[in-house]
Amino acid sequence: MALEKPAYQVLEKEGRFELRLYDPYITSNVKIKADNYREAASRGFSPLANYIFGGNRARDKISMTVPVTAEPTGEKIAMTTPVAISGSGEYTVSFLIPKKYSMETLPIPLNEKVTFEEHPQRKVAAVRFSGYFQQPNFEKHIRTLRDWIERKGLQEKGEPVVAGYNPPITPWFLKHNEVLIEV
After folding, report:
1. What distance in Å separates the CA atoms of residue 47 and residue 118, rounded to the nearest whole number?
2. pLDDT tens by residue, 40-65
3. How far apart are CA 59 and CA 81, in angstroms?
């Protein structure tokens, strides 16, 4: 069974890179203190999974979607080079909400840390890669995507978002991961 993903149109494709136009969508989110993307995704998964598996006032089960995303949260700092992601920080971990829901029809979470966000239509630069869901892999692909964005003459509008599309048991060489940056 295919899991629901955010809908988008590919505006431009160059190898593993794409410029996409995403349709509006809603995410369920939780803010997590973590040292890196992987730790954030791991720690943020449980409260979000609990919500969709019935941890809400209506006890509704909500369909699983992909990807699970993690992005740094907090003060936006002007981009500089080289890019290094380290130290302790706060991340927002998100699940896509199925299209059949609106902000008005979403079940109310039992965990007050679970919040929702509406995302408007937007352009996003993306790079797809396989491999382990680990920080060095993310940092490498964040740099390559930023290089591609610069070569295309685009401007970054947001922080890098790391997206994972597979369960942890998927072999590393079959994993579908992406770095996404709004432009």
Report:
1. 19
2. 988 999 999 999 999 999 999 999 89
3. 47
Cα–Cα nearest to 71, from 91, 49, 50, 100: 91
pLDDT in tens, 126-167: 999 998 778 888 999 999 999 999 999 999 999 999 999 988
CATH class of the region 8-182: alpha beta
Count other C-beta atoms under 10 Å from residue 131's C-beta: 14
- Residue ranges of the domains in the chain? 8-182
pTM, to two decimals:
0.86
Per-residue 3-state assignment (H helix, E strand, C coil) for the chain? CCCECCCEEEEEEECCEEEEEECCEEEEEEEEEECCHHHHHHHHHHHHHHHHCCCECCCCCCCCECCEEEEECCCCCCCCCCCCCCCCEEEEEEEECCCCCCCCCCCCECCCCCEEEEECCEEEEEEEECCCCCHHHHHHHHHHHHHHHHHCCCCCCCCCEEEECCCCCCCHHHCCEEEEEEC
